[in-house]
Each structure stands twice: as C-alpha cells, then as structure tokens.
Amino acid sequence: MPGIEDLSVLRVEVAEGVATVTIDRPPVNAQNGVFRDEITRVFDVLHESEEVRAIVLTGAGKTFSAGADLRDRPDAAKRGAFPRHSRGVRAGFDCVMECGKPVIAAVNGAAIGAGCVLALVCDIILVAEDAFMSMTEVEVGLAGGVQHVLRHFGQSDARMFLYTARRLSGVELHRMRVASGCYPKAELLAVAQAMAKDIAGKAPLAVAAMKRAFTLCEYMPLHEGYRFEQTQTAALAKTEDTKEALAAFAEKRKPVFRGR
C-alpha cells in the first residue's frame, strides 16, 4: 500500500475492507523507536485509506507485545531526552486512538507494559485464553499507564493491577469485562477478522462518526456529549450512504455503501 512500504517491524495485509497489522519484531515484539515510527506511519495511512474500513492489530509468534524495549530508554543525563522520547511514545498510542477506523486488538499472547497499553487503546479487545496482560512498571522502577488502565478497569482492579504487576489471564480479562471475547489461540485471529469484516460492511461514514463520538465524548458531560452525537446524525442524514440504507431497508435488500 502506498505510504507504508519498507516496513521492518510491522506487516500489513488488506482484504475485503480489513487491514490486519501484525507486530513482527522477534523475539517478543518489544517497542522501540523504529516500532513507534512505523506504527504511527501505518495508522496515519490506514486512517486515510478508502479501501480500509476496519483494522485488526495482533502480534506474530507467542507474544502480542512485551512492552517497551528497555535498551531503547533515553539517557536521563541528556537534557531534553525524556520529553522527546515521551512524545514519541504517546504518538505510538495516539495514532491508534485517533485513527478514523475501528481497531480490534487480537491479543494472541503476552501484553506487558506498553504492550498492554497498546491493546487498551484499541476500540475492541479480544484475547486468547492463554494470553495475559501485565503492567510491570513497578518492578523496573518506572510508572505509567494509569490513565489507559482506568478506562477499562474498575478503580480497585486498576490499582491491584498496577500496584502488584500481577498477570491477568485472557479468561480473567474476559470475566472482568476488559476483553469482549476470549478464544482458543488458534481461533482468535479469524474471529477478530470476521468481526472486522462485519464492521467493514456497515456504512463507513456512520462508523467513522461513531468512533469520533467515542473519542470526543468520553470525558464530556452527558448533555454536551449527546448533543455532539446528534450533530453527527444530522450530518449523516444528508449523505448518499444514509439515503441508500433507507432505500435498501424499504426495498428489503442489502445496501451498497460507497463512503459518501
């Protein structure tokens, strides 16, 4: 796909409106500067790609992502090193949250630290039964991830998770409602891709508007958030896709959406 050639730690495949992005940086898919540059570039391109309507993010091998590559840490003695590094880390997560296409995390194995956060910034989380999430920052003298963990965990569970660095299995994550589904590892990717294909079959402008509402309204008061959603509905009513959907419903046929 134009704009995402020459990737070294990510693989991208597109089929039937679904892009599957695979982290492939052996041995444990750790995140370094190259990873952050590539994931930002990939998701910015997918954001603007008309042929992609939904995205699956997964890991190659036995690991989703073991987190930040500690060999890639900034030198605290160098002035400005940490702000520059932190900005890049944020961009590697923000590009997923800000992408206009829904992103499904297919957590196939360990998701640790920054790898856990990467799963948490996706729209939908699916996990393998033998996968796990863990935030190990307190074990290596670091901190971070609180804000993203609080978006998915209850207050007590979030504190337990972060203070203890405990591993939570796929089964536990599903029970705690952090993940929407838990599957045998051999079935996980196919399930995630089928769900993405289902999303890709919906009116793309409506799906994009829904994601905007999730992103913008999360911390808005109820009244202002719902009022914003209503402006999205009013704008969609004038689109060709919405008119096609209403016509297809009346004619009892499947709609053909063109993204306009």
Describe this structure in words.
It comes from Neoroseomonas oryzicola. Pfam families: ECH_1 (PF00378). Belongs to the enoyl-CoA hydratase/isomerase family. This is Enoyl-CoA hydratase/isomerase family protein. The chain is an alpha/beta fold and 260 residues long. It is built from ten helices and ten strands. The protein has helices at residues 33-48, 81-98, 114-120, 146-150, 155-164, 170-175, 185-200, 204-217, 222-236, 240-251, and strands at residues 10-15, 18-23, 54-59, 63-65, 103-107, 110-112, 124-128, 132-134, 168-169, 181-183. Strand 1 and strand 2 form a beta hairpin. Helix 1 packs parallel to helix 2 and helix 8 packs antiparallel against helix 9. The longest helix has 18 residues, at 81-98. The mean pLDDT is 91.
> What form results from the Cα inertia axes?
globular
Structural class: alpha/beta
Q: What is the rounded distance between the termini?
A: 22 Å
Strand residue content: 15-25%
Low confidence ranges = none
Biggest beta sheet attributes? 6 strands, mixed
Overall pLDDT: 91
Provide the helix percentage: 40-55%
Q: How many beta-strand runs?
A: 10
Strands across the major sheet, in which order? Answer: 1-2-3-5-7-10
The number of helical elements comes to 10
- SSE run: EEHEEHEEHEEHHEHEHHHH
Radius of gyration: 19 Å
Give a short overview.
The chain has 260 residues and is α/β, with parallel strands linked by helices. Helix content is 46%, strand content 16%. InterPro entries: ClpP/crotonase-like_dom_sf (IPR029045), Enoyl-CoA_hyd/isom_CS (IPR018376), Enoyl-CoA_hydra/iso (IPR001753), Enoyl-CoA_hydra_C (IPR014748).
